Amino acid sequence: KKTDEVTVKGEEKVSRVQVRTLLRKFLYKQGLRDYFRVIGGKENALVVKEIKVEEEEE
After folding, report:
1. Which residues, including other chains, have CB under 8 Å from residue 35's CB and lie 6 or more apart?
2. Which helix (H) or strand (E) holds 36?
3. What is the pLDDT of residues 16-48, one digit of tens each?
4. What is the pTM for the complete model shown?
């Protein structure tokens, strides 16, 4: 099993939008919202990708 995967299971079906919103809130509260974004993946998957930040030249 991959260590970079998180599986969400529950008794009731959880919508993809709800999980995405919770992930975004988590990133915001941890101060990581400026560095990562949540995008849709294959079928029932969401992907958290690092935002490419270009260094400013002085």
Report:
1. 50, 51, 53
2. strand 36-40
3. 888 899 889 989 999 988 899 999 888 778 888
4. 0.69
